[in-house]
Design a protein that fits this description.
By secondary structure, this protein is an alpha+beta fold. Helices cover about 20% and strands about 40% of the residues. The strands form 2 sheets. Strands 2-1-3-4-5-12-7-10 form an 8-stranded antiparallel sheet. Strands 6, 8, 9, 11, 13 and 14 form a 6-stranded antiparallel sheet that branches. Strand 3 and strand 4 form a beta hairpin. About 10% of the residues have low confidence. InterPro entries: Cupin_1 (IPR006045), RmlC-like_jellyroll (IPR014710), RmlC_Cupin_sf (IPR011051), Seed_Storage-Functional (IPR050253). Pfam families: Cupin_1 (PF00190).
Length: about 240
């Protein structure tokens, strides 16, 4: 493991012993097979057990994780490429936001046809404007308050962020189903997919005129996985 930017704590659990390491930019760690690993910074901690450490989970094709998000902080927006996630709030309260992808131009139910005729008309215009009747993808925001006992089902490919309330930490237990060959993609923080884009890819995606502004926005976040919340006014601790 190589720390590209920032600092934090890495904890290894192996052979019944716990080892903690303070890491910062430039550090390299070798993590033995079978070790249980969790990462932490001032905004939260994340524990995870995969099928590599637990044969029973491998048979179930499942990973289990526990996120403890400090009050006023958030877990960076991310999505799973293959696994569907079931998240259960164990403690605290806050809210989650999900970007739900929709493909326009699909067949609509009779109820939608009656209630959303104008929306269908806009979608038809969008298809015609795209040329050749190709379907276009858009994202709809889903946002809801969560508290102890809340259950969230997050399908694969749906970017989601968890935000803790200002009064107490938010603890969330996550079960990732269909975990084999799954990748977790972060969209913010020092380990985000945008941080890993090379210059030609960024120029193609955002254009040359916006290059400096894009680099400034992408590089502004100095933490990974757990970040300061959008409305936080205090220094978080876990």
């Amino acid at each position: 493991m190589f720390v590209k930017e920032g600092e934090g704590v890495i904890v290894l659990l192996r052979g019944g012993k716990r080892e903690s390491f303070c890491v910062r930019e430039g550090d390299v760690m070798v993590i033995p097979a079978g070790a249980v690993v969790y990462s932490a910074n001032t905004h939260g901690r994340h524990y995870e057990i995969t099928g590599d450490e637990c044969p029973h989970l491998r048979l179930l094709d499942m990973d289990v994780g526990l996120a403890n998000i400090a009050r006023g902080s958030m877990m960076a927006p991310s999505y799973n490429t293959r696994a569907n996630k079931i998240a259960i709030v164990l403690k605290g309260q806050g809210y989650f936001e999900m970007a739900c992808p929709h493909v326009s131009g699909g067949r609509s139910s009779p109820r939608r046809e009656r209630g959303h005729g104008r929306e269908e008309e806009e979608e038809r215009e969008e298809e015609q404007g795209g040329g050749g009747g190709q379907k276009s993808r858009s994202y709809r925001q889903v946002k809801s308050r969560i508290r102890e006992g809340s259950v969230i089902v997050i399908p694969a490919g749906h970017p989601t962020a968890l935000v803790a309330g200002e009064d107490k930490n938010l603890a969330v237990l996550c079960f990732e189903v269909n975990a084999s060959f799954d990748d977790k993609v972060f969209l913010a923080g020092t380990n985000s997919a945008l941080q890993k884009m090379d210059r030609p890819a960024k120029l193609l995606a955002f254009g040359a005129d916006e290059e400096q502004q894009v680099d400034r926005v992408i590089g502004a976040q100095k933490d990974a996985v757990f970040l300061r919340g959008p409305q936080s006014h205090r220094v978080s601790s876990v």
